[in-house]
Amino acid sequence: MVKNPFAGRYEPDIQWFMDDLRPLGLEMAKRLVAAIGGAELVEGYGKGALVGAAGELEHGALWHAPGGYAMRELIGGSKAIVPSAKKVGGIGARLDVPVTHINASYVRSHFDSMEVGMNDAPRADEILLALVMTTGARVHSRSGGLEAKDIIGKDGLK
Questions:
Q1: Does 2 map to a domain?
Q2: How far apart are the C-alpha atoms of 154 and 158, rounded to whole Å?
Q3: Does residue 19 sit within a domain?
Q4: Which residue segment(s) compose the domain that 43 sits in?
Q5: Tell me, what CATH number does 117's domain have?
Q6: Which of 92, 99, 106, 109 is the right S-S partner for 137, CB 3.0 to 4.6 Å?
Q7: How many angstroms separate the CA atoms of 64 and 73, rounded?
Q8: pLDDT for 36-91, tens place per residue?
Q9: b/e map of 125-147 (b: 16 or more CB within 10 Å)?
Q10: pLDDT tens, 96-139?
């Protein structure tokens, strides 16, 4: 959870906030990798931002680079774009953060999401920031399509 410096007003110049969020993204990613047991175990990832009611969707978009690049830096060599979700919501709102395979977005077994939220957040002037990592496919995945063992890994798609 971070304070939204733009809450309650329109601000044309907001990109500087991405630089402010970079250390937080890296710290969150480090804690997540440690909790999982190491970067070599990470197979899926995603990110999201839930903006309080006094903010706007674009404020959540500022999490794309700080959150995504932090995870990719720690994992090392991942090819797929980090999927994301963002929305504006009131206290108690929930966000479904999408998850895909770290090297190939078309691996169906890793299509998933994780619901995030807090009962007392986000307050109107806050942004809830989330990073998600997984260590494997969905349990009992059998939806077909590209399998993780068949990833070519050139373009982040297949």
A1: no
A2: 7
A3: yes
A4: 15-148
A5: 3.30.1330.110
A6: 109
A7: 14
A8: 999 999 999 999 999 999 999 999 999 999 999 999 999 998 999 999 999 999 99
A9: bbbbbbbbbbeebeeebeeeebe
A10: 999 999 999 999 999 999 999 999 999 999 999 999 999 999 99
